[in-house]
Amino acid sequence: MADHTYYPRDVTRFMLDVAIDIMTGAIARGEPIELRGFGRFSVRQVAAKTGYGFGNTPEPYVKIPARRVVRFKAHDHVLTALATGEAPEVRSIEPLGRGR
Q1: What are the C-alpha distances in Å from 51 to residues 5, 58, 61, 62?
Q2: Which long-range contacts does 93-98 make (Cβ < 8 Å, 24+ apart)?
Q3: Residue 66 carries which DSSP code?
Q4: Which tens digits make up the pLDDT trace of 35-85?
Q5: What are 13-19's contacts with CB under 8 Å, separation 24+?
Q6: Backbone φ, ψ for residue 93 (5° rounding)
Q7: Predicted confidence (pLDDT) per residue in 2-40, tens digit
Q8: For residue 12, how many other CB atoms are within 10 A of its CB?
Q9: What is the DSSP string of 24-60?
């Protein structure tokens, strides 16, 4: 990010860390997050189920408890870039003139 803005690396790293902390908190509370043009993160509940026990388990089947999982649905722009292999051009921020 610092290469495409006029902010120093430590400032852009701090801004990104704060954004990730905010999104992590929202996901932990079960709130969906939408990043416009990128995709949507949501939380869903997965029911308990029985699975096959591999390795050193004494019984062939094990109980897998219910849990919450994060789901991601990519935006059409991301899916198109993935299908074509063409990444979009990275935009840069131009410096603002004095007096703005």
Answers
A1: 49, 13, 6, 5
A2: 93/4, 93/5, 93/6, 95/6
A3: -
A4: 998 999 999 999 999 988 777 777 788 888 999 999 999 999 899 999 999
A5: none
A6: -95, 130
A7: 777 788 899 889 999 999 999 999 999 999 999 998 999
A8: 16
A9: HHHHHTT--EEETTTEEEEEEEE--EEEE--TT-SSS
